[in-house]
């Protein structure tokens, strides 16, 4: 196997050393942009030597103006197919350059056209993984002056949407936080552990959202969480909660995590201060945060009436 080179750097060199000179031969002076964005572990910076499968390697998107695509795309694709080296730094180059235009690519990737404005529904129905993919990666050349502004617009939620998205996560915690103890109390330690894993995932996503980072899908969630402000402090706590073999120990670690994440919420000063202490659940033996308090506090600060309530089926 060739020496490992991170995928973004590999693609940058591929564009600079190989693709751009061939593009100048095929269409001299044609305005274009080039980037490595979209799917792939290298876009988020999580690729390792293990990543080097069939879909990993020198890859990029080549963006043309929409009006130039019909007259030039076919010739460019043909020229690249004829003249690209079979391998680049030991990796195959077949079908590694996507020739497209900005509107078509972003619409196909996100499901909406961000050049025409982004509605709250667009933000809320787009998986955070996709938003991470289009705002991470690297732009190698932006001759069209479109990728930079678009990625800047998509870099983070508008304030009301951000508050709404965090309120959703807190409400998911609220719905299940008592179940760690209730399952354990009837001898269902497996069910208790399963609920703890669900709650851990929600807390990790909350920490990312509070750091203004789009949570990636589960394969990379732990890696992304480790880079958050709270990651170094909470990783051992959440790990201990998941490793616990009895619900009392599991609940103790989760209670610490609840209070820590609640404290981060208060530090953001997005709402009035919410008491971060855990407390009994319905006068029972279970410790919970009553996370719905954070949901209500966030929604109370939303100015858009359409975002002040959570949908029944969210």
Write up this protein.
The protein contains 13 helices and 8 strands. The protein is an alpha+beta fold and 314 residues long. Helix 1 packs across helix 2, helix 9 packs across helix 10 (218-226) and helix 9 runs antiparallel to helix 11 (231-243).
Tally of alpha and pi helices:
13
The succession of helices and strands, N to C, reads: HEEHEEEHHHEHHHHHHHEEH
Portion of residues in helices? Answer: 40-55%
Q: In CATH's first tier, which class of the largest domain applies?
A: Mainly Alpha
CATH architecture of the largest domain: Up-down Bundle
Got a strand count? 8
Strand order of the largest sheet: 5-2-1-6
N- to C-terminal separation?
A: 46 Å
Provide a quick synopsis of the model.
This protein has 314 residues and is an alpha+beta fold. Helices cover 53% and strands 9% of the residues.
